[in-house]
Design brief:
Helix 2 runs antiparallel to helix 3, helix 2 packs across helix 6 and helix 3 runs parallel beside helix 5. With 133 residues, the chain is mainly α. 20% of the residues are buried.
Length: 133
């Protein structure tokens, strides 16, 4: 289903998840409060994955709207809504002291890291598929 929305979306989500696992296993060595670290990280990772899916859906809708010569006001609305949700999630985590905010931000940056590493991940996936076929 995700591949129908955008062909690279599954690879982007896999990259975000791998980034989260890397931060989880490396960061646990250095943090005193491991529960705060883990919850902040995985809230950030979930937020990054949700934003990636939302962006892919909005891009698909925008292409459909542009093809039908409509206006793309909803694209800007969804963009603003994404940031409002992100700020709201940070505010909720801060207010309820549910996780480490810095690590949550690092988890959210998994979207950027995964976007940059997606071409490399794609090559690796293709080579693994070639070997298994």
């Amino acid at each position: 289903m995700l591949r129908r929305i955008n062909p690279v979306l599954p690879e982007l989500l896999a990259g975000i998840l791998l980034y989260g696992l890397l931060l989880q296993f490396t960061g646990m060595w250095f943090m005193d409060d491991k529960l705060q670290y883990s919850t902040g990280l995985w809230i950030g990772i979930a937020l990054a994955m949700g934003m990636a899916v939302n962006m892919a859906v909005v891009i698909l809708d925008s292409v459909d709207v542009m093809a039908s010569k409509g206006t793309a006001v909803r694209t800007g609305l969804w963009s603003v809504l994404r940031y409002v949700v992100a700020v709201g999630a940070f505010a909720a985590v801060w207010y309820f002291e549910a996780g480490n905010l810095l690590v949550m931000f690092l988890g959210l940056m998994g979207l950027k890291v995964s976007a940059y590493l997606q071409p490399f991940l794609h090559k690796i996936i293709l080579q693994v598929q070639k070997k298994s076929a």
